[in-house]
Design brief:
alpha/beta; Rossmann fold; 13 strands; binds nicotinamide-adenine-dinucleotide
Length: 322
Amino acid sequence: MTILVTGCAGFIGWRTCSMLIAQGHRVVGIDNFNTYYDIRLKLWRAEELKKRDSFQLVEGDIENLGLLNYLFSNHHFDAVVNLAARAGVRYSMENPHVYLNSNADGTLNLLECMRKSDIKKLVLASTSSLYAGQEMPFLETLPVNQPISPYAASKKAAEVMSYTYHHLYGFDVSILRYFTVYGPAGRPDMSPLRFIKWIDEGTPITLYGDGSQSRDFTYVDDIARGTISALIDADYEIINLGGGNNPVSISRMITTFEELLGKKAVIDHQPFNKSDMMHTWANIDKAKKLLDWEPQIDFETGMQKTVEWYLENKNWISKLDV
Ligand SMILES: NC(=O)c1ccc[n+]([C@@H]2O[C@H](COP(=O)([O-])OP(=O)(O)OC[C@H]3O[C@@H](n4cnc5c(N)ncnc54)[C@H](O)[C@@H]3O)[C@@H](O)[C@H]2O)c1
């Protein structure tokens, strides 16, 4: 198949593209290389992908409908995997407009191009952030109508607009609600990579809250595998991709890094942020049933691989702004 992957230089996009290529697919990847976090990480991921013949990089923005029209008229895509998004929760309070523009309008642009080119299959990245305030473990059928951040609201908008295109035009849509993804070459705005770097350098860790908040951490290769599995005929399905076990507290994550690095963390406590969730925990029964998917990498193994990648790449990672 030829697949359009948006956000290909992003953390999940990069692993998803690598896996698609390894499975023999042709991938056209688009990314706008925005500077929300240090662009050197995106460039590194893109360079890794450009080594592969069956990968083509388009540097561009999914907000640019003219560019997308041109792209869709020059390629035949069998499916679109929309991972491009503004993805940080806290920054969405500072700059809500870019979140709606990229995450909601960008998705609408893709849906329109798909409609005009008669492409029916969409895999859309959504988020566990939508479950704020609900009972755990989070089930896909819970009502998620009270998003607590502009980020979550923008993802909800993308979900429901995709539903509209499913209803009106028979699109086949898999919506994936990811739960805290971590792994090698992860995002420097998320705690795993920045905490590893700070502990290693002896820089105080900025910790929002007391560390008892917990996350259902999911390793990036598991997420990429699940994303590719979601290319099946789904009709319209919302599916959680999460660790699915008891969530891990941020304090325990810090202890894990201390042990792996052999160094002690210095912690700078900051108040808990109102846009953050205290706990996340996925019910993954639906992913097991529909996608035959469950995580293969446990928390300890995944964090060890993440620290190993950091140590192997420290010569340039040490220069990153986190
Ligand atoms: N990482 C997680 O824990 C997590 C959890 C839930 C959901 N998600 C979702 O998964 C997807 C991928 O997240 P990620 O962690 O890889 O984030 P990321 O920021 O590393 O990747 C997103 C990529 O999209 C690109 N991008 C953003 N806006 C764009 C636009 N308008 N046009 C073209 N490219 C654009 C960025 O430059 C970036 O490379 C996002 O949709 C995110 O909301 C991620």
